[in-house]
C-alpha cells in the first residue's frame, strides 16, 4: 500500500557557531514497504525524522530524492489537484488532537465529511453517531472540546480520523500524555478499528510497552535512517544494539 524508495530530505538553516553547514539531513535514503492491511509501528528517539516521514508520505513535504508510492501512485510526481484527491485516501490523528475549540464534538467529527464528501445531514449525523459509539462516547456530540479529558479528546480524534472510512490512517503519538490504563485502551481501540476497516495504519508512538501489543510490523528510525524493519517479535528479539536498547528501555548502550 505504501512504498518509499531511497527517500531523502534535508532542510537548510542558519548554521550555529562551530557548525560546518546549515544543512540538516532529516531523512537519509529511506526504503520502506508497508503492506496493505498492516498496522505498522514507527519508533525511534526524538528528532529521528518520524513526523517528517509521515508528512512525506501524505505529500505535505516532497523528498529531495527518491519516490513515494501510495496505492500504486507516485506521490512525488502528482500535481497539486491530483495530490489533493490522493489525500482523500488518508485519515490522520494529530499528536495534539487538533480539535477545533469553537466546534462541538459532533461538528469536529463531521468536519471532514462536510469538506470531503457530498452527504446529506441525515447521513452525516448517522456516521458521526456511529463513530461516537465505536469510541465509547455516545451522547457526547453536543459537548465542547474544552470540557473533555485527555483520553476523551483522543477518542474524538480517533472518531474524526476514521469517520471517512479512509483505507490509510496515520496516528502521531495517539497516547501522548495519557495514563497507562487509558493509553492501553486507546491502543486497543485503534487496533480494533484497523482490523474492522482492514485499513493500512502507520502509528508513531513513544509508548513502546503498549504500542508493541498491537503492531504487525515495526520500523525504527535513528538520525534520519531506517535502521530496523521487521515483525514485532523480531523487534523485541533484535540483537542490533540501538534497537535492543530502545525497545527494552535500557540505560546502557549506544543511544
The CATH architecture comes to 3-Layer(aba) Sandwich
End-to-end gap: 32 Å
- Total individual domains: 1
Count every beta strand, where a strand is a DSSP E run of 2 or more residues.
Answer: 10
Helix content: 25-40%
Question: What is the chain-wise order of helices and strands?
Answer: EEEHEEHEHHHEHEHEEHH
Shape designation: globular
Strand content: 15-25%
**How are the strands of the biggest sheet laid out side by side?**
6-7-8-3-9-10
Structural class: alpha/beta
Low-confidence sequence ranges: none
User: According to CATH, what is the topology?
Assistant: Rossmann fold
Rg over CA atoms: 19 Å
Biggest pleated-sheet summary: 6 strands, mixed
Give the name of the CATH superfamily.
Answer: P-loop containing nucleotide triphosphate hydrolases
CATH class: Alpha Beta
What does it look like?
The structure is a single chain. With 255 residues, this protein is an alpha/beta fold. It has a single domain, classed as P-loop containing nucleotide triphosphate hydrolases (Rossmann fold), CATH 3.40.50. Helix content is 35%, strand content 25%. The protein contains 9 helices and 10 strands. The strands form 2 sheets. Strands 6-7-8-3-9-10 form a 6-stranded mixed sheet, sandwiched between helices. A 4-stranded antiparallel sheet has the order 2-1-4-5, with helices on one face. Strand 7, helix 6 and strand 8 form a beta-alpha-beta unit. Helix 3 packs across helix 4, helix 3 runs parallel beside helix 5 and helix 5 runs parallel beside helix 6. It is globular and about 55 Å long.
Amino acid at each position: 500500500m505504501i512504498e518509499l524508495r531511497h527517500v531523502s530530505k534535508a532542510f537548510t538553516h542558519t548554521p550555529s557557531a562551530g557548525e560546518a553547514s546549515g544543512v540538516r539531513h532529516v531523512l537519509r535514503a529511506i526504503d520502506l514497504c508497508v503492506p496493505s492491511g498492516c498496522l505498522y509501528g514507527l519508533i525511534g528517539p526524538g528528532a529521528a525524522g518520524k513526523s517528517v516521514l509521515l508528512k512525506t508520505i501524505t505529500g505535505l513535504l516532497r523528498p529531495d530524492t527518491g519516490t513515494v508510492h501510495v496505492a500504486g501512485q507516485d506521490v512525488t510526481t502528482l500535481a497539486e489537484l491530483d495530490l489533493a484527491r490522493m489525500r482523500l485516501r488518508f485519515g490522520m490523528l494529530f499528536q495534539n488532537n487538533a480539535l477545533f475549540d469553537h466546534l462541538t464534538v459532533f461538528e469536529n467529527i463531521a468536519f471532514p465529511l462536510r469538506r470531503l464528501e457530498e452527504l446529506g445531514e441525515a447521513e452525516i449525523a448517522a456516521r458521526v453517531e456511529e463513530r461516537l459509539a465505536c469510541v465509547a462516547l455516545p451522547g457526547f456530540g453536543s459537548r465542547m472540546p474544552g470540557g473533555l479529558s485527555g483520553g476523551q479528546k483522543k477518542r474524538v480524534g480517533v472518531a474524526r480520523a476514521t469517520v471517512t472510512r479512509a483505507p490509510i490512517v496515520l496516528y502521531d503519538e495517539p497516547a501522548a500524555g495519557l495514563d497507562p490504563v487509558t493509553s492501553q485502551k486507546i491502543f486497543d481501540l485503534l487496533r480494533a478499528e484497523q482490523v474492522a476497516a482492514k485499513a493500512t495504519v502507520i502509528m508513531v508512538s513513544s509508548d513502546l510497552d503498549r504500542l508493541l501489543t498491537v503492531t504487525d510490523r515495526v520500523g525504527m528510525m535513528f538520525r534520519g535512517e531506517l535502521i530496523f524493519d521487521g515483525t514485532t517479535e523480531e523487534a523485541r528479539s533484535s540483537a542490533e544494539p540501538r534497537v535492543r536498547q530502545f525497545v527494552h528501555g535500557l540505560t546502557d548502550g549506544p543511544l
